[in-house]
Amino acid sequence: MRCRVVESAVRSRFLQYAAVGAVATAAHYAILVGFVEAGWLAPPRAAALGAWVGAQVAFAGNAAFTFRGAPVTLAAWLRFQVTALDLNHPGGALAYRVKGEQGDFVYATDHEFGDPAFDEPLVEFARGAKELVLDAHFTPDELPLHKGWGHSDWRQCSEFAAANGIGRLWLFHHKPGRTDAALEAIRAEAQKVFASTQTACEENFFEI
Question: What is the pLDDT of residue 85?
Answer without folding.
Answer: 93
